[in-house]
Write a structure and sequence with these properties.
Layout lengths: L6 E2 L7 H4 L16 E2 L21 E7 L12 E7 L4 E7 L2
Antiparallel strand pairs: 1-2, 2-3, 3-4, 4-5
């Protein structure tokens, strides 16, 4: 398993539709700001690092946060993306509160 260096991902609206999306009404201030590339996953539930079909533990690649109340993942959840750099194969996991 290779560790990907940590990068902050900051979503930037690329069109008027995205720019017009309203923010969360009831979620905490950090919800929608937890996007990241590399580092370690901030699992909402239990640690869930998958294995590749080749049998190796996959590397954490990124986490993508909910966007707003319309594009919410479960209950303020996140998608976690993992990769095997040897195959390459990817898997994603969704967790929410």
């Amino acid at each position: 398993m290779r560790a990907v260096p940590l990068f902050k991902l900051v979503p930037e609206p690329l069109d008027q539709e995205a720019a017009a999306l309203p923010p969360f009404k009831w979620a905490g201030n950090d919800i929608g700001q937890r996007h990241r590339l590399g580092g370690s996953p901030d699992f909402i539930q239990t640690d869930d690092i998958p294995s590749c079909s080749c049998g190796k533990t996959m590397s954490f690649y990124a986490q993508l946060d909910s966007i707003n109340d319309e594009f919410i993942l479960g209950d303020c959840g996140m998608i976690y993306v993992f990769v095997c750099f040897d195959c390459p194969e990817t898997k994603s996991i969704l967790q929410s509160f």
